[in-house]
Fold these 3 entries.
Entry 1:
Amino acid sequence: MKIVFMGTPDFSVPVLQKLIQDGYEVVAVVTQPDKPVGRKKVITPPPVKREALRHEIPVLQPKKVRHEYKEILDYKPDLIVTAAYGQILPSELLEGPKLGCINVHASLLPEYRGGAPIHKAIIDGKKESGITIMYMVNQLDAGDILTQVRVPIDEDDHVGSLHDKLSIAGAKLLSETIPKLIANEIEPKKQEESLVTYAPNISREMEEINWELDGETIYNQIRGLHPWPVAYTTLNGKPLKVWWGHKVNAPKKGLPGQLVHFDREGIVVATGNETAIRISELQPAGKKRMQASQFVAGAQLSTDMKLGEKE
């Protein structure tokens, strides 16, 4: 059976690897164009492209797949599998393969349709997430569900750790699903529209910490943005990335955003509802990521300072 795989970031790589391990004929891989990365803007291929080339699989990188789909259909795939590809597929592509187009989505649909389901699940303090294998249609993540698997979210999970769990779970579930799809053993299930929620891509506004919120909410925001794109606040009017922190009992109360204590273990910041967060890893503007203890040793901090204030 001929499969075209469409994916782009690290999340997609285990899914592609599993298709190859299972012996399917992956006739082509479609991924996003190479992009400049880092301060030096080095042109870098997506992770899926590197993996495809390692297996000598042809790679296509259309800028806009809705206009550049014919070359994909020239491979005459029986099935198209997508996983975090990053572009909406045109009808011509969706209707091309005889087994259709299926997607590996990182949520328990109909919850969290959109581009940031992993981030949103943690930000919302969910105790579980999951993977959905679904048919693709001309509407965002709205196709019929083929299979699902649930994945628990631990208290210390962050986007990076949950991403890895879901990526592996997605590859395994896809491996179990395709044989049943070929054998026509799956009854697709429509999504319950009344239960639909969305997880739009993370905006700059969503990254800024509001210290008026309670400690639990801020902790979920920090781990829901770690290790990318990373929560931030301001100190003396300048951006300060908050890479990691935990809820703690503050040694004394303070106004939201106020530094109430700092030592070798980090910086304790008052939050809403008389709770607190201990920042343990941070990154001042123009400097490298560092432990908060290192920052405390070199910065002139005082307990009348407040985070989040603009100059």
Entry 2:
Amino acid sequence: MEIRPILSAMLRNKTGAILIALQIALTLAIVCNAVFIIQDRTAKMARDPGMDVDNILIVNMAAYKPDYNAGNAIRANLDLLRSLPGVVDATYTQSIPLSGGGWSDSATPVAEEHPKSSVSMGVYHMDEHALNALGVKLVEGRNFTHEEVEYVDGDKYTTPKLAIVSRAFAEKVFPGQDAVGKNFYEGTSGVTIVGIVDTLEGTWPHWEGFERQIIFPTVLESEYTRYLVRTLPGQQDEVMKAAEQKLGEQHVGNFLRRVRPLAFYRDNTNSGDHAMTVMLSLVTALILSITALGIVGLASFSVRQRTRQIGTRRALGARRVDIVRYFMTENWLITSIGVTLGSVFAVALNYWLVNLYDLPPISWYYIPVGILSLWALGLLAVLGPALKAAAIPPAIATRNV
């Protein structure tokens, strides 16, 4: 197949070819970034949270008595919740996992009053029942003891001396080392790691420190308290009703605000990502369909314009496969120009998205896969018009020359 005659024919109808090439370029840029975002958000939603999300309830309480004793109320509420039928364990918590709101801090492996570099982390304050209530797996070290848990006034908080950390946090602060027994620092306040859990996710799914979590053995006494209750599988509804009834009957100076499954908070946090993935999937399908129809339209127009040329070639001995190959090659050239421009557009669009929306950079292989996909789409789209052109009999040319 000679390229020069094809280029000459394209130049005679360069407006259509340029518009299709630009359409392909924009399609590659948008589709590559859209598919990358869809896969990134889908992967984040599918991560193993490391905890028994489907069997955890979150109980929120608030004080109403002027002489409210938060410490006594928290102890009474926890004793009641742990005694309910169907409850595996319960703990105090100041943050709701996967909820989109919580507590973060930063740590360094050495004491520095003004750290030049630090590792961000999510912070949970819980008691010695935390690991069992969350359903997380302790892989190194030990759990907190009852004596190590401190009840402190929330307004007089100071950094605790002990912590259980996630494996992701330990590997980030002490790479390649055994972190149990080592100290990390919040400024100049040293914290000793007593245990490491396999996986523990935080509260902000899109935060870089989402999997770098620590648990302090601390209960913060305040007017608003929150409990994390793990139930037996299939017992969540019964425990929820019992908790609402018993906590309502218990007069320790506070009242029940709400009881909700942890899955409610997780689904609410993920709802935006669900909507985005659906919208981007529809946009991707729409753009690919429009691009395919554009290629079909241009190819069909070319066939109608070149009926005499095709017939003449057929009369001079050109085979049907030669006609099909001609239009396929022409389309491949247009698509190649489009994907070349589109590769530049895709990188530029991703750079803009990364800086504006704090998204991760696109993986390198998305653009080559996008190029191959658009080549295949272009060849499939032009196949019908090309076969139609190849079916034109030589007699057409004889009558029109």
Entry 3:
Amino acid sequence: MSGADEWHALAAFTPARVALGRAGSALPTRRVLEFQLAHARARDAVNAPFDAAALAAELDAMCLTTKAADRAAYLANPDLGRSLSDASRVGLARGAYDAALIVADGLSATAIRAHGAALARAIRASLPELAWAPVTVVTNGRIAVGDEIAQALGASLAVVAIGERPGLSAADSVGLYLTWRPRPGVTRDADRNCISNVRPDGLPLDEAAHRLAWLARQARRLGASGVGLKEDAPERLTDESARA
């Protein structure tokens, strides 16, 4: 077996698979096993059962479903996850709301199970001035399902917290998507702002909520989101940096 990879120092700066070393013409056995474990975790995150009822109870939220009847249909037909089921649609009541918070399993139920409740609480606490619609928890949901929910509730701002497609170094990332005045079938991806890699080992939950709050206030001030709203939120000063 060869010695340490000469690029080994780079590995201290990223969880990506760099500087793995060599054993002859192949990877060391330990690195192969690590890859197989990461791949298994990613597959588990996509296929893990989502206990929407438990999360909804924790958040005092409503449970909704999409037109994807099961996980297999959800994965094979992405459009099904972008529309509510008929039963869920009729259960939404319009109100005088500023914002709707939608929590969906997306492609990683593992991520939402781990961080969904804490993140939802942090988001609402970061924007106390808004009239929030009841939180909704969606099974087999994709980002665009938030458009239909926000419009049905009468909210001008949609915030979707959704499990991100797992990578081989992170299976528990949550993405946040903010959309101003969403319209089902009309709103484009370019009309949304995204905050990605929200997880304890990525962008911390409270920092993500801080950035989202800045974006939401700017969206309400400008009447726009997505390409019409530049994400240049100022860095939040820590106690140490404020004293420096």
